[in-house]
Prior knowledge:
Layout: E1 2-5, H1 28-38, H2 43-50, H3 54-66, E2 77-78, H4 79-82, H5 86-91, H6 98-107, E3 108-112, E4 116-118, E5 123-124, H7 143-147, H8 150-159, E6 166-169, H9 173-176, E7 187-197, E8 200-202, H10 205-222, H11 227-230, E9 239-240, E10 249-254
Parallel strand pairs: 1-3, 1-6, 6-7, 7-10
Antiparallel strand pairs: 2-5, 3-4, 7-8, 9-10
Helix pairs in contact: 2-3
Amino acid sequence: MLFLLSPAKSLDYDTPPHVSTYTRPLFTRQSAELIDVLQTKTPQQISTLMKLSDALSGLNVARYQAWSSRFTAKNSKQAVLAFNGDVYEGLDAKTLNEQQLGWAQEHVCILSGLYGVLRPLDRMQPYRLEMGTALATGQGKNLYQFWGAQIAEYLNQRAAAHTAPVIVNLASEEYFKAVDRKALKARVVSCVFEEFRAGKYKIISFMAKRARGLMVRYATEHKLATVKKLEGFDVEGYRFDPAASEADRLVFRRTQAA
Length: 258
């Protein structure tokens, strides 16, 4: 199984990585193409394009100008250790050992507007470029058109080693839209995380994000290899609800946060 995650807006480049193992991102040529476009933008244009404050747009313009085709210990960090949002607080990769991170490297893919797909140990330079950004390039008017079928084709290559390939989608809708479903050959299974609020179960965004990270950590710790094993997820009060689930949509519920 391959697990898909979204990236995070928050980044941590201050904490030194606890492992020395790293890999190089796979789509650096495409990233460089996007950087070339982004480097032509003024802070005001970036602010308008991405709906950012002046401070954030200035920060990211500086990041685009500093971006390099060389990924070093000074300008980059392993992606799973650099991202720092709700999903990655649940995953808590800084407490995974080298062997566990090695398993994640083989089974986790982080979708990215700039990098296409990042493996957990791929070195990543800091950036802000959400997949839904309407950045015009030679390939079209937005990043979905820029990436086209490339991400799906890569996932097909990764999944080809398995007789019954499965993609476990733990990414947001914005990011999963970058996977061309017509080109994707693997079965897709989605996991849904719900909280009991005001007499009914509902998805609470930040809790669901954390739960996605918890699921990937659970899979990593237990080296899960089948969809059936996902049903055993029981972290922080969540339980699999077979009555609310379907074959390719697994629902996990809890009445209160653990």
